[in-house]
Design a protein that fits this description.
Length: 99
């Protein structure tokens, strides 16, 4: 019988947890798991042991597509001239949380 090594044979998953309703999911760490369901269960056990979260996202690390800091100017510069995308001229009520 051959043994499996989780750190080399199982895919790596990234874990995101949302602490409270209305907040964003935040990357909290990584783990190896045999499949998606196992990754979700392990993420729950490892990253939310003390009721830290209300929602967990897990996804295979090799499925993440990200921009490079070197691409900052060509990727984000086109939105700089669209002032309507920046709510600088809106009054935000004091009772609106997390703004």
């Amino acid at each position: 019988m051959t043994e499996t090594n989780p750190t080399t044979d199982w895919p790596l998953y990234e874990v995101f947890v949302r602490a409270k309703r209305g907040l964003n999911h935040v990357h909290v760490g990584s783990l190896h798991a045999h499949d998606d369901q196992m990754a979700l269960l392990h993420a729950r056990d490892v990253y939310t042991r003390r009721n830290e979260g209300v929602s967990i996202w897990v996804l295979p690390s090799d499925r993440i597509v990200a921009s490079s800091p070197d691409e900052k100017d060509p990727l984000f510069a086109p939105s700089g001239d669209k002032v309507y995308r920046h709510p600088t001229f809106y009054a935000i009520p004091d009772d609106v949380p997390h703004m």
